[in-house]
Amino acid sequence: MVAEQTTITTHQSRRLTARVGSHTLRQGLSLIVALLLVALVALAVYRIQQLPNAPIVVNPTGLSALQYHQLADTLGTQADNNVLQADLPSYLAQAQTLDWVAQADIRRDWQQGLQVHVVPRQAVAKFGSEHLVDATGTVFAPADSNDLNQPYWVRLQGEREYAAAMLQQAKQVTDWYAPLGLRLQEVIVTPRLSWLLRFDNGLRVLVDNERTTEKLYQLSILLQNQLQPQLAKLQTIDLRYKNGMAVTWRQPDHAPTSDAAAKDSGK
């Protein structure tokens, strides 16, 4: 009995020793693997930090020469960091500081650096004397001041906050008055929200901020019917009345003075 117990105890001791050795080996291997991973990560970080600063490449598609150079001057030709660590949101914010930029996109390219693509705003009207406005009603300063001299279809004047409403009204008026052969040239909104519309034949229309669209539409119908024979004689139409309107007629051409007539007759 004693001999049998001694044999069992010795066997258990050997098994316990084997287990302890196996566990120690696994711990050692895990530690070695962890150290290798840490070393690899550290090496990767070091190699990334040693990469050169990324070039900034502006895609010229859709840009004028001045827009391209203005954008390149704003962003610079080289980033402050490599292609993986460059702060894209900061460069995106810089591009969007340019008034004429409608959309901007910056992407990382391992071969070429930071790729910049910009969509410029497309002007549809003038706004004041120094700005343009796009189809969304956004007022912006063009990259090229010569763009202010382009023959846009209408000029808007007023506070920027009313630009979208002015543009929408101008589009409607253009459609309504086109059958009369009238082309809208200017829309002015005063601080008191009175509207002044000028047409290419010299006609001026004044209207307040109450039922503005309705009044302008009704006037277009009236001009195409009852007032059409008098259209050439109309100088100003004032719609700022609850019931009706006020009309100012063009002054007839003055006959030549007697002195002028005498000079003409003496020729």
UniProtKB/TrEMBL annotation:
Residues that span the membrane, as ranges: 29-48
Pfam families the UniProt entry points to: FtsQ_DivIB_C (PF03799)
Signal peptide (UniProt feature, chain positions): none
Domain of life of the organism encoding this protein: Bacteria
Domain Cell division protein FtsQ/DivIB C-terminal: 128-240
Annotated GO biological process: cell septum assembly
Keywords from the UniProt entry: Cell cycle, Cell division, Cell inner membrane, Cell membrane, Membrane, Transmembrane, Transmembrane helix
PANTHER family reported for this sequence: CELL DIVISION PROTEIN FTSQ (PTHR35851:SF1)
Name of this chain's protein: Cell division protein FtsQ
Gene source species: Faucicola atlantae
